[in-house]
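4.2 Preliminary Data

To establish feasibility before requesting continued support, the project team ran the inverse folding procedure on a target of 387 residues. The structure was first converted into the token representation described in Section 3, and no sequence information of any kind was made available to the design step. The complete token record follows.
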């Protein structure tokens, strides 16, 4: 069962109980664009308490805002009651919601016209706000007054740039002006939410178009870790392949401390730090020990930054070939392991074991010792005797 078929089961169930129900939001936009979607949202005039009783498997964590998550064939669908939103006191979410009886009122609370369409069970598109025409024109504009929409939820400004990056659309001039005026409202938005949006933005096909608009609106001034490096990124036509690389580029061009203060996964922080340190030390010779210690990704990224920022020769293929031919790529590749040392030399303490493993790895990487059990065993025995 595909995603749409599961959604139609939900619509049919609600219809049979006398309720209206429609597919809404980004899925309808993607449906018209011929783009594959990963989730479907549904809007209905049935109240959440009623929706929760209609389906055997539901998740009730969104009840406060009128949302019940219905699970069909292991896929999750958010089913939300038609509503209007109260005041957005924290610039993030309404302090209260009021259920309403009609789809059109519900549609008017949404962010952008291209996301404010509805799809019937017969796959007919309902449009109250000119979203179909805006999709044809490939333009992003808010539903109603952009100043009000961004004042309600400031993250919507960043979502404009994310949609530009993903879809390649232009942006309505009034919407851009409203971003410029309201950008300081981003101070109300958590770093976690900002990071999630930018991580999606970075992966977009039209990434550079989005970055240029961030400059045009001076939006970067409202997000501390975007304050340096974006101009270089655009001027050099540098395209990061993932979020870690984007952050690393910003780090080496002046934003290291701001990025280290972000709530990032440890693996991302380690990548940024490792590349930052190698770049700061002006490392451009990727020896076997460096490749072994830092790994292929960090070395390739350091090389790429050297190439773009320092105009050094691109060594990408050389690094890949060298890494592929490493005698060992990880400590676990050793033929003679730490456990063998512990059994053979039980009187030795932990630090000695670790130091010996490091020495063995270095000798192998430098071509001074073969990764062979007996040769390593002999090397260690001679080392112990000489102490």
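Position-by-position output of the design step:
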């Amino acid at each position: 069962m595909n995603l749409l078929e599961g959604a139609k089961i939900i619509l049919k169930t609600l219809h049979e109980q006398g309720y209206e129900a429609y597919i809404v939001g980004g899925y309808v936009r993607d449906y018209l664009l011929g783009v594959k979607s990963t989730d479907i949202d549904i809007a209905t005039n049935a109240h959440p308490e009623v929706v929760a009783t209609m389906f055997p498997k539901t998740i009730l964590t969104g009840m406060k805002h009128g949302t019940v998550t219905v699970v069909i064939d292991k896929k999750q669908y958010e089913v939300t009651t038609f509503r209007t939103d109260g005041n957005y006191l924290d610039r993030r979410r309404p302090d209260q919601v009021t259920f309403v009886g009609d789809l059109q009122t519900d549609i008017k609370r949404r962010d952008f016209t291209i996301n404010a369409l509805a799809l019937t069970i017969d796959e007919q598109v309902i449009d109250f706000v000119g979203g179909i025409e805006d999709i044809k024109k490939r333009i992003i504009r808010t539903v109603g007054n952009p100043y009000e929409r961004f004042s309600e939820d400031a993250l919507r400004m960043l979502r404009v740039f994310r949609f530009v990056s993903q879809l390649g659309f232009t942006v309505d001039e009034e919407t851009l002006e409203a971003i410029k005026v309201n950008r300081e409202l981003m101070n109300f938005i958590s770093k976690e939410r900002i990071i999630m949006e930018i991580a999606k933005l970075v992966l977009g096909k039209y990434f550079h178009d989005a970055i240029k608009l961030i400059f045009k609106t001076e939006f970067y001034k409202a997000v501390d870790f975007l304050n340096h490096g974006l101009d270089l990124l655009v001027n050099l036509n540098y395209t990061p392949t993932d979020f870690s690389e984007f952050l690393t580029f910003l780090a080496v061009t002046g934003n290291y401390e701001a990025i280290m203060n972000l709530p990032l996964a440890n693996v991302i922080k380690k990548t940024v730090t490792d590349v930052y340190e190698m770049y700061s030390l002006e490392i451009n010779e990727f020896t076997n020990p460096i490749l072994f210690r830092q790994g292929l990704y960090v070395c390739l990224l350091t090389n790429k930054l050297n190439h773009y920022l320092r105009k050094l020769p691109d060594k990408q293929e050389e690094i890949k070939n060298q890494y592929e031919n490493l005698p060992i790529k990880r400590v676990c590749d050793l033929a003679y392991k730490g456990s063998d040392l512990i059994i053979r030399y039980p009187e030795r303490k932990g630090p000695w074991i670790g130091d010996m493993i490091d020495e063995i790895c270095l000798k192998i990487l430098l071509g001074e010792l073969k990764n062979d059990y007996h040769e390593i065993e002999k090397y260690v025995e001679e080392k112990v005797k000489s102490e």
